[in-house]
Write a structure and sequence with these properties.
8-stranded mixed beta sheet; alpha/beta; 316 residues
Length: 316
């Protein structure tokens, strides 16, 4: 049996069934998998792949909504995030050497699903960077019944000048042993503790933002700061690589925010135009974290996802 891991139920505000486990990847990185069970009558399990500074407790309220609708939720802390092993010497650095390393985390997650006997069928929700990882997982054969992507990082939003500079600088930094350094303008600072709600680029939902601030204050060990040069080069490379592949044959619904300042919406539109079984929704006036936007802005995205999954529950 897998070893039980620390889980901060007191700050997650999720289903009372929340538990966490340690897993070892094929390259011996210890990563944490957290599981929220449904209240009753399980309809399947959602594999929730979060973004660059995501961790299981961050979406406890989201998991609670899915549990109320009958879905279990399995959330992995990617390497260098949450309570999983930090790869860089600076534990706050959002660091990765190669994006393919995340697939080792996915493989450990999938192996754990059977051991934990989580209810089938499986569904996938990929948020931001998690959507980039999730798309690669689907291309590599991850078996899910349906998928939803939230503000997928299939392109990183940059000005033309920033993009021209990003490729050679991030490439060169790795070649001279500086890949672990922060991207210019980034640091070890925790975003929600250093950005007033009025200036944040994540959500219009003040209650959700305060919830994240409370988590950051009470469990700073779950947090990370900015990305490293290595992460940037690996991310740009993976976006370019995946832009050249076809879309998986799985029902998909994708949401992105009209006001998103982190991901490139043009790349998202391009992908969804090439997804025969895909639906695309641009959420007017929404910021990056569409899943947690206010109802006045985002409507009921979680409800739409649940309806989409239930409508495609018989897909093989």
């Amino acid at each position: 049996m897998m070893e039980k891991a620390k889980f901060y139920s007191e700050i997650a505000d999720g289903p009372a069934t929340g538990k966490a486990y340690w897993m070892r990847t094929e390259d011996n990185v210890r990563v944490r998998l957290s599981v929220y069970g449904p209240q009753e009558d399980p309809k399947g399990t959602i594999l929730l792949m979060l973004g660059r500074f995501g961790y299981a407790e961050r979406y406890g309220r989201v998991a609670k909504r899915f549990a109320d609708d009958g879905f279990a939720t399995a959330v992995i802390d990617w390497r260098s995030q949450g309570l999983s092993d930090r790869i860089a010497g600076d534990p706050r650095a959002g660091h990765i050497s190669h994006f393919s390393d995340y697939q080792k985390d996915v493989a450990a997650m999938v192996a754990a699903l059977d051991e934990l006997n989580l209810p089938k069928p499986y569904y996938l929700i990929g948020v931001s960077m998690g959507a980039l990882i999730g798309l690669r997982s689907l291309a590599d054969g991850l078996q899910v019944t349906a998928v939803s992507f939230i503000s997928p990082m299939w392109g990183i939003k940059m000005s033309t000048i920033e993009r021209i500079a990003a490729w050679p600088l991030s490439w060169a930094s790795q070649k001279v042993g500086l890949g672990h350094k922060y991207v210019p303008g980034e640091s070890s600072d925790i975003y929600v503790l250093n950005t007033p709600f009025e200036d944040n680029n994540l959500t219009h939902n003040a209650d959700m933002y305060e919830y994240w601030i409370d988590q950051a204050k009470r469990a700073p060990e779950l947090q990370i700061g900015g990305p490293t040069m290595s992460w940037l080069y690996a991310g740009l490379s993976e976006c370019r690589s995946l832009s050249k592949i076809g879309s998986p044959d799985v029902p998909c619904i994708t949401f992105c925010g009209e006001l998103d300042q982190l991901v490139d919406n043009a790349s998202i539109k391009s992908r969804m135009e090439r997804w025969p079984t895909g639906k695309f929704k641009m959420v007017r006036n929404a910021k990056h974290d569409v899943l947690t936007e206010t109802p006045e802005v985002g409507g009921d995205v979680m409800g739409e996802i649940v309806s989409f999954f239930k409508a495609n529950s018989q897909t093989t």
